[in-house]
Amino acid sequence: MSNFQPFDLLATLVTVVDRNGLVLFSNAALEDVLGISRRSIVGTAFAEAFTEPSQLQNALEGAIENEFGAMRYDAWLKRVGFDALPVHVIITRVDLADSIIVELVPLEQQTRQDREERILEQAQSNKELIRNLAHEIKNPLGGIRGAAQLLELEMDSPELTEYTQVIIHEADRLQSLVDRLLAPHRRPHMVGDVNIHEVCERVRSLIVAEFPKGLRVVRDYDTSIPEFRGDREQLIQTVLNIAHNAAQALSERIAEGDAELTFKSRVMRQITFGKQRYRLALELHVIDNGPGVPDSIKDRIFYPLVSGRDGGSGLGLTLAQTFVQQHQGMIEVDSVPGRTDFKILIPLP
């Protein structure tokens, strides 16, 4: 049984059964979910833990006959005192003691992993798109601005000069936009000790200064969170971008005097995100009681140039996600009318 002890370190639900489907080993995560002690699980027919035992029985028979190396299917796992849990079942035949490993991944967790993979792939695609688009724009933009300046020197009429000034002004505006798109990829990562609550307090002071009336800022900190290595300025900009967007979305509630913005910090233990498992991670929430993210942009909120308000550049959240990913973390969002929660996840030492 000592061969199976490493499975106790996993957050996923794992059991090892013999060729007859009897449990040889059950890890602690499965014990917790089933609500049954490990001693009670070992020696029982594991198929009986499912609402449809025949699915597992058939899969085990296929594994014993070497019909496949691994098999996957969805099922419902029975739990003591709770509703059945939908899980993704992964069955793998191993030579060790002629046993079979049955891994169960709650479908909610599987959905989360799929979402995280999409976010990471989206961020990488955004990065390549921004770089290529920015470089394609910069060269002709410089030519347009230079041509307008030369043309202005040849003109005697103030009325015509006004037109060249419009061209130069708009070229400068586009140049500024391109520079902002490229900024996170150009600036070196300045690593130092970061106290996340100092970051939040800096952002809080900026938000309160800009919105002095009608907005209540709530601080819900876990002061035991340790310092970690990171780029303080990038993290300030990240939290500020999210908080500023939230404050602007709260304009109607600010006018009514009941707007609320919450900074909430917690430590997560044994968490998996970005396809990696971490012993500890910072979980920083920026929560507002505004109207929520429009349904039309929920799936594209971190795309560049996508904004939920008139006049928005659509770069704030894109830059925030980029900065957090440079800390091996990620940002998630959960939004319904009346509550929007941006969650920043960063690994801790």
UniProtKB/TrEMBL annotation:
Domain of life the protein comes from: Bacteria
The protein's role, per its UniProt record: Member of the two-component regulatory system NtrB/NtrC, which controls expression of the nitrogen-regulated (ntr) genes in response to nitrogen limitation. Under conditions of nitrogen limitation, NtrB autophosphorylates and transfers the phosphoryl group to NtrC. In the presence of nitrogen, acts as a phosphatase that dephosphorylates and inactivates NtrC.
Keywords on record: ATP-binding, Hydrolase, Kinase, Nitrogen fixation, Nucleotide-binding, Phosphoprotein, Transferase, Two-component regulatory system
Catalytic activity entry:
ATP + protein L-histidine = ADP + protein N-phospho-L-histidine
Q: Which GO terms fall under biological process for this protein?
A: regulation of DNA-templated transcription
Q: Which SUPFAM superfamilies match?
A: ATPase domain of HSP90 chaperone/DNA topoisomerase II/histidine kinase (SSF55874), Homodimeric domain of signal transducing histidine kinase (SSF47384), PYP-like sensor domain (PAS domain) (SSF55785)
Q: What is this protein called?
A: Sensory histidine kinase/phosphatase NtrB
| Enzyme Commission identifier(s) | 2.7.13.3
**What GO molecular-function term can you cite, just one?**
ATP binding
User: Which residues are listed as membrane-spanning?
Assistant: none
Using the record's annotation, list all stretches that form the Histidine kinase domain. 132-349
* CDD domains, sorted: HisKA
Q: Which residues form the PAS domain?
A: 14-54
